[in-house]
Specification:
The protein contains 18 helices and no strands. By secondary structure, the protein is mostly helical. The protein has 2 domains: 214 residues, Clc chloride channel, CATH 1.10.3080.10; 228 residues, Orthogonal Bundle (Clc chloride channel). The longest helix is centred in the first third of the chain and has 41 residues. The chain starts with a helix and ends in a 14-residue tail after the last helix.
Length: 458
């Protein structure tokens, strides 16, 4: 498939000068990259959602999750075999290698990454691995953009542009959030922004969003139309502080477990130890299964008992406090489960996990305040605000977080609270970590440009 696509691009390159200017050709290329990336992302999300519903049916049939708690091990074994046998440990995982390719390899990414991450992450998450698909989809989109530019014999800067288009289109397709996709590419990939860059990015993300709406209408989306009362302002500020603290905890857990698994290496020891621990955690806390978006959707719709379904705690006589306790434990264990998934040989990322952790934090926080009777808080508003704050802190991308949540909630009703929560969380984490979880290893190796240090004075 990749070879066939390359031959088509080469043929296009040979004939394009007769019919189209170079500027328009770049715009057309960005549209193609957006289209191909969106189709890949939508297919992967659609495939995962189907299997996720099947897992729910199995749990309903057995009235327990003991069987689905074992499924993630199957996914890990499949991903491990692909990574070690088929790709021979040459398939790098995460967003960091994409950024490294920009500064070290002239934005060139090997063709194996155009399909490898779809295979390994699809197997990992489809069988319940506790990680997200955003990082693999970002890498896939970046690889599609990079290889498109390479086959079309474009310049270094144009290759970086199409790489950014693929990255932005992946985010746009998953969430139907074109603006967030563009900002993510600029904010996380550390690309110098110029006006000529903006138009191709806009075209590629708009194309990805259209494909998403046509092919994947069941994407994560929640219509939020309730205005926020001024008396809730202090609680949003306090939520931002909580997001900052939990984001620091999440980063620390991820880094420590990543260091541990790096010492072990990718082998059967890490596979079975990490996989067994992850399966055990999923058995104790079923919401840890998969990406976690299904849990957030249920909480946004008021189905709080979902946290107890198919678990050993389902027969409690004090459901409210048990629900809050389970939500808190899932929130604290999600970064552990994600790190175990990736360390054991799975392919996934921290993006979705951060959103889930933030949503659970906002849920627990607002419910506890409502119990005290101080101020009646709108729980869904605090759930989405927590999602923005946590994402801003973990990946150091406050603008991406603000616009992503604003777009997936169908408007900008909570724009001011989102800004406050994200900013507080971001600056709290920045006070302890100058670089994000994506950039830290690159900064330590001296690979980031000097401008990445500009915010040290803020």
């Amino acid at each position: 498939m990749s070879l066939f696509f390359s031959k088509i691009l080469i043929r296009v390159y040979q004939t394009r000068k007769k019919y189209i200017s170079h500027r328009n050709f770049i715009l057309l290329s960005s549209l193609i990259v957006g289209l191909v990336t969106a189709v890949a992302a939508v297919f992967l999300k659609w495939f995962i959602s189907i299997l996720e519903h099947q897992a729910t049916r199995i749990n309903d049939w057995l009235s327990s999750n003991w069987l689905t708690a074992l499924l993630p091990m199957i996914g890990l074994i499949g991903s491990y075999l692909l990574l070690t046998r088929f790709f021979r440990n040459r398939l790098q995982r995460g967003v960091t290698p994409v950024i490294r390719s920009i500064f070290q390899r002239n934005s060139r990414i090997h063709k194996r990454h155009t399909f490898g991450h779809m295979l390994t992450s699809g197997i990992t998450v489809a069988f319940g691995g506790s990680a997200g698909l955003e990082a693999p989809i970002v890498y896939t989109g970046a690889a599609i953009g990079s290889n498109t530019a390479t086959d079309l014999r474009l310049s270094k800067r144009e290759t970086m542009l199409l790489l950014a288009c693929g990255t932005a289109s992946g985010i746009a397709a998953i969430f139907n959030a074109p603006i967030a996709g563009i900002i993510f590419a600029l904010e996380v990939l550390l690309i110098d922004f110029t006006i000529p860059f903006f138009i191709p990015l806009l075209i590629s993300t708009a194309t990805a969003s259209v494909v998403s709406q046509l092919l994947y209408p069941d994407r994560f989306h929640y219509q939020l139309t309730v205005n926020w009362p001024f008396k809730a302002l202090p609680f949003y500020l306090f939520l931002g502080i909580c997001c900052g603290l939990i984001a620091i905890y999440t980063v620390r857990v991820s880094e420590q477990l990543d260091t541990l698994f790096s010492k072990w290496g990718l082998n059967t020891k890490s596979l079975f130890i990490g996989g067994a621990l992850m399966c055990f955690l999923i058995f104790l806390f079923p919401p840890l299964y998969g990406e976690g978006y299904l849990t957030i959707v249920h909480l946004l719709n008021g189905n709080e008992s979902f946290l107890l379904e198919h678990s050993i705690y389902n027969q409690t006589t004090e459901p409210l406090f048990m629900i809050l306790g389970i939500a808190f434990l899932v929130m604290m264990l999600k970064p552990v489960a994600t790190a175990l998934t990736i360390g054991a040989g799975g392919n996934g990322g921290i993006f979705a996990s951060s959103l889930m952790i933030g949503g659970l934090l906002g849920f627990v926080f607002s419910k506890l305040i409502n119990i005290t009777g101080l101020v009646p808080l709108h729980v869904p508003s605090f759930i989405v605000a927590g999602m923005a704050g946590m994402l801003a802190g973990v990946i150091h991308a406050p603008l991406t977080s603000i616009f992503l949540i604003a777009e997936i909630t169908g408007g900008y009703t909570l724009f001011i609270p989102l800004m406050m929560v994200s900013a507080i969380s971001y600056f709290m984490v920045r006070s302890t970590d100058a670089f994000s979880i994506y950039h830290k290893s690159l900064a330590q190796a001296g690979l980031l440009p000097d401008r990445s240090h500009y915010s040290d004075s803020i």
